[in-house]
Write a structure and sequence with these properties.
With about 180 residues, the protein is mainly alpha-helical. It folds into two domains: about 20-85, Diphtheria Toxin Repressor, domain 2; about 100-175, Orthogonal Bundle (Diphtheria Toxin Repressor, domain 2). The protein has seven helices and no strands. The protein has helices spanning about 20-40, 50-60, 65-80, 85-120, 120-130, 135-150, 160-175. Helix 4 packs antiparallel against helix 5 and helix 6 packs antiparallel against helix 7 (about 160-175).
């Protein structure tokens, strides 16, 4: 007598991803589409996206209704299945890294400004770290910012305070290049 039971050792049923894995993959592509939507349009051109995807992205930028935008992003995720997502991931990562570096540079400039206003020793440290800085202009800006801070301690946004920050920021950019 032969039993009619399926062979449990066969791998025929497990040769494709599970439904849950497919959903995770589709959600990841949808999130990548949202990240792509956050990029400026000028960053889309080097990716050579299909025209239908580019049009869907442009359309999504114009949609203000929450539900409409959600559906458009789902559509973008569906279109993303037809392209190689790696170049898009790399472009999004490069864009985010650039923003992070800009933010880090701004925070570093703010710290330098605070140090320069707090101590005369910081002036020499700044000059050692940044070659080619106009020493006289830096001293004048520090002096003027300290004077503004002495007159109004709670107000930290005087003209000299802002100009000192701009000078430091420009020096940081020049030092990085």
């Amino acid at each position: 007598m032969q039993e009619n039971t399926p062979d449990l050792d066969s791998d025929d049923d497990f040769d494709r991803p599970s439904k849950s894995q497919l959903k995770r993959d589709m959600t990841a592509l949808q999130l990548l589409g949202e990240d792509l939507l956050a990029l400026p349009e000028s960053r889309w051109e080097p990716l050579a996206l299909p025209e239908i995807l580019s049009d869907a992205l442009r359309h999504a930028k114009k949609i203000t209704n929450f539900e409409g935008k959600r559906r458009q992003i789902q559509y973008i995720g569906k279109l993303m299945r037809k392209i190689d997502p790696e170049p898009v991931r790399e472009a999004v990562a490069a864009f985010k890294l650039g923003h992070a570096q800009d933010s880090l540079r701004l925070h570093q400039s703010e710290r330098w400004r605070e140090r320069l206003l707090a101590s005369d020793d910081a002036l020499q440290e700044f000059l050692n770290a940044h070659d080619g800085v106009d020493i006289q202009q830096l001293r004048n800006l520090v002096r003027a910012a300290r004077k503004d801070a002495a007159n109004e301690p709670e107000k930290r946004s005087g003209r000299a305070f802002r100009e000192l920050f701009q000078f430091i920021k420009a020096s940081e950019v020049a030092a990085d290049e």
